[in-house]
Specification:
transmembrane; ATPase_P-typ_P_site; eight-stranded mixed β-sheet; 4 domains; single chain; elongated; Rossmann fold
Length: 883
Amino acid sequence: MTGQPSWHGVTAQSACAHLQSHLHDGLPPDQVTARLAAHGPNRLPEKKAKSKARMLLEQFQSLLTLVLLGAGILAGIIGDTTDMVVILSVVVFNALLGFHQEYRAERILETLKSMLAPQSRVRRGGSKQEIPAEQLVPGDLVLIEAGDRVPADGRLVASHGLEIDESSLTGESVVVGKDHSNLHDADTPLAERSNLAFMNTVVTRGRGEMLITQTGATTEMGRIAGMLADTPESRTPLQERLDGLGRRLALIAAVVVGIILAVGLLRGQPWGESVLTAVALAVAAIPEGLPAVVTVTLAIGMYRMARHGAIVKRLAAVETLGSTTIICSDKTGTLTLNQMTARTGWALGQRFAVSGDGYGGQGAITAISGETLPDLRPALLAAGLCNDSHLGADGTLVGDPTEGALLSLALKAGITEQWPRVAEMPFDSAHKFMVTIHRAPDGLRLLVKGAPDVVMERCGFVALADGDHALTQQWHDQLATENEHMASQALRVLALAEARVDEAALADPLAAARALTLTALVGLMDPPRPAARDAIAACRAAGIGVKMITGDHRVTAAAIGRLLGLDGEVVTGAELDRMDDAQLADRVEDIAVFARVAPEHKVRIVAALQAKGHVAAMTGDGVNDAAALKRADIGVAMGRTGSDVTREAAAMVLTDDDFASVVRAVREGRTITDNIVKFVRFQLSTNMGALLSVFVAPFIGLISPFHAIQILWVNIIMDGPPAMALAFDPARAGLMTEKPRPRSAPILPAARLRRLLAYGATMMVGTLGVLWWAQGQGDLERARTLAFTTFVLFQFFNIFNARVGSESAFGPHLFHNAKLWLALGGVLILQVVAVHWGPAQAIFHTTALSWSDWALATAVASSVLVLDEIRKLAERLVRPHLG
């Protein structure tokens, strides 16, 4: 069995010969054990999960963490146990927080395995038997029928009216007719291999026999599982920006600590004192509260998004949405409803339009011309009766989606007839039509539905408002024009016809289907979601591109794209195969619609966009979307219609399956990102102030203004709650009209960094000023406490600078965030406790301050806000005169 052929291109007999099986008896039982040993069980391989220990150790790899660890160890070496314990506790807390974020089970492959049919009916050695699906081997002959989930990949060797729903694999919304004849084109796309059946697809009609050709990891589903296992989860833009910030801060800390140690030793300063100063500097340079604040802020964003129908599984995904520049959306079930619906048609000489979605019959049929329509019930009888679908007790469709669309059309027309069916010929891909015979009150009625060209060949008459007319060449041409008109709009067109027959027709319905009367043409489609077009327009206004990816044909995909307002090229999977990665990257931004794509194409498209610097989101619902969802910067799955595999692969799940929810989530993501940047501005200005204060103090003859534990107190306790409260700031006006931040853009631009340096310098001057004044009075403990308290109060005022850009901090939004004011009140109380409560004084090396000390500290600290407001006022006054 070496050298696998293209199974769709060989005959059933040749396939059996290649696999050393038998067309009718199946595989000899004595070969099963050897093949099972050679090919392995029919299940998907499991990816070895990362151990918990490795996950935890990886949390200690960042430079900031290593610098803090070093500072804590140095503090312990010189005997400063309190600082060592506190610093190391912060390191461990942040590591546990990161571990908790990362630790979620990788259940994707397990879910894929659970989707396999647990039992399969096979014929081995000429006898039928039922076996576990995982015991199937190449060469087995499997029997499938309506309702079965296909257990492996195989070549059909027999088929009887067989149709399979392959949307989970190919993304094509229409069920596929299957037969066992061989195909001659070796390059036939996956979605058009009508003589093959694939693992995890569902048989919707008919029955068949298939020769198993691939099992487990070698199936199409196995390839998807392999892509999932091989696809690394992307780092988010925020993670990349914060990592870059961390590296710069670690470098600054290392340089400054080295300078302080060298200068202290050259000046003859005691080793312990130099190390303490160095530890304080290291702690001052690092925003220890950053991981906790980012986590809490993202968690708040998760909660808010959940209330709007978006369940976020990975915290960082909240921020990624705010940075998204391209959304690649699966068509079926995401931009469209994944419900075939009659949209238009022709009957009794008039074109009609159909409103309403779903299968419940809500909607109406109206004349496109605006005239009054004649009673269409006789013309549309075949839509309701020549139909095997029905609505379940809960209103959901049971049966084929195309037949569901016709059933809904019949309900909208008011058809209530339930004539008994006495004979039928099921739809067959060879005949391309279906025949049923019913016992009506006035005799036997033969009803037909099928492909227009095939049905019209069997028609001799056409039904018009004034009765039946002969189907002349003129009428034939006009009906062909109507068919082409609907097909050009990417509608799937079906013809309906009928005839009155006698009892002899019951013996051979196919032969009786002659001299029919054509009653109607019906155009069907999977319609766009009502809000999808507006959502795409909102994306465009926000600078976000939208690309539609589908398994449908080019014409259908292009038509849906036009309805949704997607402008750009339409490219097929076959054309993608002819492009290398560089060529695809060059063209990908100009392509709006990708048609007839396979799962690996979707991964390539996402990778090409990422290569161009885009932050790519991918939405989808089928198994065929899972690998691309995992590869994307953020994968978004549909919660209602999505597969378990897709929901596991995605970082976010939409509970309402509505593309418009993605846009709402993007707005929330941008708001959260905006608020995280506010905190970074706030925390960095604090770090700059602390770093400058500790660095400059010894050079101007002052004692170190802070102990290391005091800086930790500021960074975590004093800055933490107010910074977390920033997560509740509402979205800025105009947020959704701004372009997304480029992935390469720093988290803070140079102009903002200069402003933060100015804030830090202001804090340094004020803090060292009160330290100099108090140190001159001889009480060093009081001097340090006053400097410490002044620095804490600087944070109270500086957070209002961090909330805004060029506008005044005293704008209408000042009191919009009640939680911020509660947090600020809380930290003031905590600072009073740290200064005036005995046990806290022992921990933080503080002493009580007088009322006048507090007043001085408050007045000095307010300067950081007052001076910045004066600067902004001057800019607003000068800017108009500068043009």
